[in-house]
Amino acid sequence: MENSTIKPNNDVNVEEAIKNVREKNQTTTNLWTPLNSFLEALDKTKARGFYANLAELLCSDESFAETRDTADCWNGHRIGE
C-alpha cells in the first residue's frame, strides 16, 4: 500500500481528515491501532471541560451555594475567588 499524505484544506475539518486517514489505512492496523486508541480517548474527554468548570459554576451560583461574600467555596484546586 502506498503512503498517502493528507494536506490541510480549509474545506475539510480535522474530524473528516482523521476519518479519511482511518479509512485509507485500515490495512495497516499494526501502526494505526495505537493512534486510533488515542484519538478515541481524546474524543471521550470532550466532556472534560464541563467537569473542569463545574466547581466554579456551582460556587458562583447563588441558588446552589452560599454567596461569595459570606463563605469561601472550594473548587477542587483552591478556594474560589
Structural overview:
The protein has 81 residues and is mainly α. Helices cover 49% and strands 0% of the residues. It has helices spanning 14-24, 29-44, 48-60. The chain starts with 13 loop residues before the first helix and ends in a 21-residue tail after the last helix. The model has no long low-confidence stretch (mean pLDDT 68). Its main location: membrane. Belongs to the glypican family. It is a lipid-anchor; GPI-anchor. One of its GO terms (cellular component) is side of membrane. One of its GO terms (biological process) is regulation of signal transduction.
Mean pLDDT level: 68
Oligomer: single chain
Class per helix and strand makeup? mainly alpha
- Uncertain spans: none
H/I helix tally: 3
Helix content: 40-55%
- Helix-strand topology string: HHH
Number of strands: 0
The rough form would be described as: elongated
What labels would you give this structure?
81 residues; mainly alpha; 3 helices; 0% strand; cell membrane; GPI-anchor
SSE blueprint:
Blueprint: H1 14-24, H2 29-44, H3 48-60
Keywords: Cell membrane, Glycoprotein, GPI-anchor, Heparan sulfate, Lipoprotein, Membrane, Proteoglycan, Signal
Membrane topology: Lipid-anchor; GPI-anchor
InterPro entries: Glypican
Care to give the gist of this entry?
This protein is mainly alpha-helical and 81 residues long.
